[in-house]
Write the structure tokens for this entry.
Amino acid sequence: MQKIVNGIVVEYDQQDQDLVEMIMNKLNEKSKEIMAFFELKEIKNFKIKIWDNLERYKTYLMSYLIANHEQYYDWIIQHSNDGNINILPTRIAKMTSKHENITNEKIASIACHEFVHICQSRVVAKEADGCFWFWEGLATNLGNPEDFYKLIPELDQIKDIDSLERITNNGNYNYAYLVVQYMLKNISHKQILKYVKNEKLLKQDEEKILKNVKDFLQNKEEKTYNK
């Protein structure tokens, strides 16, 4: 089936109607604030596709991952590699090893995460350096922070930006969430947008930013301990 909701084409199977409604409600709730962050007035020319077959979804996703020399993991139940939001519905996502207990609400939250990627892709420079941790940090903070806000501030596993990038690529977005959360609170919105639009600038500053985050958390822990 296909319908248009607020100008967005949605392709789905009838049995996923409830999920579609929840996704669109979540997007209506969050999309204006997300677009405002990127200074976008509207987003056009993308669709939301709810896939009804796991193997076809996997094959389609892998065609993009292989082209980018990336690996497939079955925890990837949504993606926007093609400029659209591709979603496995709850009933199919439950078949994967990491999402046996997933709910419609969780799927809807992740869709907002993917919408952040869509928005960022509209303003990033074509020659972007691909700071994956930064993309996922923004998407988790702006799109689905409710899935990450209980994170315990701990960065011992992150020795440098390369390790942050590697851990994020392996599917652990908690650290990227934490670093970008610090950035959003301590770096001006104007500067963060400069990083979005020109990731070469971010590359110049990222190690310094990570050090500032670790110093901040260390001081926070010491203050808590000394109380």
In short: The two ends are 59 Å apart (CA to CA). Residues 29 and 64 are 30 Å apart (CA to CA). Strands lie at 2-5, 8-11, 47-50, 78-79, 85-87. The mean pLDDT is 90.
